[in-house]
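Quick look at the format.
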Amino acid sequence: MVFAGAAVLIATRGTAATGRLTALQLAPGGVRRISTRRPATVGAICMVLAVVALGLMAGQLLASALVTAAFIAAVVHRRRGDHRSQIAARAAVPEACRVLAAELRAGSLPADALIAAADISPPRLATAWTAAAAADRLGASVAEVLAAPPDGCEALGALAACWRISAGTGAGLAHTAERLADVFAADLEARAVVDAELAGARLSAVVMACLPVFGLALGAALGAEPLAFLSGTPPGRICLVAAVALDLVGLAWVRRLGLRAAR
């Protein structure tokens, strides 16, 4: 159970969450981006399989199953939280760009306009606006900050290019920011259509992944005692570990295909 406690602790600290943590450091020579990658899904799968194998070798099938379920639940919870944060940030980009354009058109300083955009943005997006405002006040490049946005705010890269051109030519940025807001809104509509099309495939993958559990329940109801075979014999334990591994790999593969189609 020591291994079980360690696995749950690591899961709750986000070891299995994927994604990228981005920090922006303002230096005298400009803006430097610090990026630290979190361990990928493969690490989570290996951790789950290790816990299952240890539990089976120790003869603690129920404890192993509970720890594995807790681990997966913690990973899914963190993934969903990060995904919701990205969705909220992405959805707020068009309106924030419109606020930025309105402030610039009204004659506000760029830093003040960026702060106004941050005031109506969720935390993930507000961080990017605030960092850009700080860069403007310190004389650093706003475009460099906007070109290194947090996950979910990738649309700011287009605004960074426009900002760089505006700073180099002296052209107005308000009209461009407003046009970009319309483009970002259209992109959100396209993403919604793609997500709706992929929802059926994702649901089918989850249903297929859960079918072995129903198979075990059906076998137990018929008196075949599949759990006794899976937990009490070496071939059964090998079959159980292999089945869990294939199930997790299949889910990860379907998720990867969905992300590729969305991109």
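Next, a different chain entirely:
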Amino acid sequence: MKLQQRRISFMQVVHRACPPALILAVLVVYPGLAQPQEIRRAHDMVLNGETRTYMEGQQGREELRGRVSGHLRFTAESLEKGVVLVEAFNWVAFGVDQRSITGIKPEGKPTSALGFTVSTREPQALKYDERKGTLSGELQGQLSLDQFFELTSPKDRGSGHDLDMRTLPAVLEVSIVLGSRLQPPKGEQGVDTRNVDAKMLIRAEPYKALRLHRKLELESTGKFRLEADWTLLLETARSLCIQPVRIGRFFITWHEIGFGIRIPSFSLVYSGDGLNFGKPNAGSEWAKADITFVYRDWMTIFNSGYSTLSSGEKSALRAEVNEDDCIEVFFVDRFDPQDMDGGGVTSSGGTESSKVISSDENADFGVDDTHLAHELGHVLTLKHPGSGFPTAASPHRVDGSSGTLICPSGFNNDNPEVNSEWNEDNAANPLLKFTLKIVSPGPDCENDADCGACPAIP
């Protein structure tokens, strides 16, 4: 079922709802809003909440905390037919004993986040029962766990600067009790906001490729905040937590004080120039796709050996920090060799276990200011254009648009400062949170045909 769309100028919408003085103020502050934007007749619904999940582990029945964040879409006509489309449904549990799932002791941290994302290969929907006031159904998708990267064969990981994790096919059964029928709220608000209860069951069959020799079942319950937008002034936005990590090292300077006597002075220096260098364009490029990044305070690793990072040290560095609810981005002073991985490498893209390692020399040379934006595109599951994804091993990965910041650039070269509707529609990660916001200008182009070819790598 495809929800109907219509094209309308954003300012037409504002004109209907706002006085002329406010329209003028909006245009002064946001002149780009006068350009035509696509406003969907379909209404957006977002839900967010905490969950309690139960899993049979080595120590018996384990209780795990976690969360759900989802994006649904409907029209008045689809509700009459009992259908609500699922644009995204992210479920994640924290502190999961990895050995309880795989039966194998992990190489790194014993616990990890376990994340579920809905498959985007085919449209998926939930059944809306107006009489019972419920949403229910089965969602096809995949589970990801940090240890799955260890268990992924080198062939399936791929090579280069974007390394894949094999994921576990899974089904999520969900039943959401709405309490009453979905309908436009009374008054001028235009958003139906309510608290709802949900029950979920996540199932996965045995899977040899990931050494899963038994059926996996997880029972999950939650209380969610649901917001259904009945206006034309709002759209869905997403946010993702980023945990920056830097390398700290002591630097000794010797000073001559006379009579042949030298005394040392100690200073502490940090890597991390690439963060402030890359944040502006990461913010502006992904804002076009209604995605924002929430940056935590620095975490610091005091190991000078990581300052100049070789290929053989990448795994050890990644294992140093594991934040279940955030994406780690490691900044080192330089790579050895200098152009290794084009200046940055992402592992387990599109999952809660995604990690980025970036060389500060991207900032030192001051050329590729879309480098961080590009790597975060891999975190958001996008591959280089023309890579041939999704695949059977990585059904969650999707090729990004040509002509955009997802194009490869090599070391010390620019990625295009362009983003696309295709990249926006296919960006995914279990840690993404959804919310409603005022409609704003969108991407620069739609897809490969509209965005042009990727620049040649010098």
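Residues 44-232 form a domain with the Porin fold (CATH 2.40.160).

See the schema section for token definitions.
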